[in-house]
Amino acid sequence: MAALLGATALAVTAQGALTAPAGAASARSADVDFATHCVPPPIAGIPPIDGTTTARIAVDNATPKVGDTVTVTYTVVKPAASNPTDLALPADIMTPTGKVTLGGAQTGDITVAGPKKNDPVPGRGPFPSFSMTGTFTVTSPGAITLSPGDYNIHTSYILELDTPCTVTNPPAPVSETVTATDAGQPNIRAISLGSASGSPGARVTVTGSDFTPGARVTLAGRAGAAQTADTATVTADGQGAFSGALTVNDRATTGVVAYEGDSWSDSKGAGPAAYVVIDDTPVPGDSQKITARVTAGTLSMSQAGDTVDLGSVESGSGGTADGDLRTVTVKDHRGGTAGWSLTGKVTDFTGPGASIPASKLSWTPACATEQGSPSTCQAGSAGPVGSAGATLASAPDGTRTGGEFTVDAELALEVPAATPPGSYAGVLTLTLT
């Protein structure tokens, strides 16, 4: 998700120094409330629960192009349901799955799934907040709305139990909107799953659309960026649609894809649609099951300060005021396949009745990659920053990305000879996406 993460104030005087602090801001989607009908497991012996769910939807790209894949995070801030039994539930026994409903320029449902992670839940206590993720491929330009949909809370403790919660009056209110632009000839292939979770060996129905009519399509499981051994084949009909079943055995599965040809291709594939395997294998007697998790982190940045002193330039002579950008540290702990880009743009430098154009500020970027990082940082090109902006540093997409990076830049402000004496200040804003 594009987030405005930092700004650095720059000022120069005919005799002077850089001053002024910078602010920081971040974007977030809206929390929405909607009526929910939850059905406790029959063993609980209690009637359905009609309550209110508070949730929000977030995306990693709010301005995609047609054909782009958008990652969606569905967070249930406050579930309508609670622990239906008097028995306290320990930590990390809940596996949530659900759906996100698309509207506007593109319609349909996205399956989402979350990790087996939760705080302890007291008997009859409320279920804690949880998040689920999934993806969809943009097939139409325009505004696409995202609303929270039905969700299910699976608990694995003594018994395998489900508490499904459905939206009483679908669709729920819109929590997020993305605006897609046309990209010419996009890949609009799409798939949906009949279920977002299942036990090892369960068959999941995979439905596809907009594939090549008559094409042989491979259905396959994904564990992160790697394909699993779970595959099946189907044939698209005369309209490019199909419906088939995939048996999922690999417990590491995180999604399902479908593609034409002998191997996965972004141009001829669809997905991954989120899917989670619920390991319900009984623990043998006198044994203990030991598990561990690796959870996804965030993409973030920090600055070593928010002011830069470019020194002084003599009035009437002009020249270049030099300085160094405050060091920026980028941390990519998402653990996925996406890269990142750090860009900057600057305002005009305003002073006493005059200004220095933003185009007069240039930089020479440098970027260092911390040892052990899967990605390699690439410095942006030297040149003007300007009000339109320029790239400071980036890391490309890959089969495995992430790590920590240190970004610096030499700054140079060209001060025209006719600039009146005084203090001139501009703000350099950095954006990490």
Automatic annotation (TrEMBL):
It comes from the Bacteria. Residues 379-390 have a biased composition (Low complexity). Keywords: Signal. The keyword Signal applies. Residues 1-24 form the signal peptide. Residues 371-402 are annotated as: Disordered. This is Beta-xylosidase. It comes from Streptomyces acidicola.
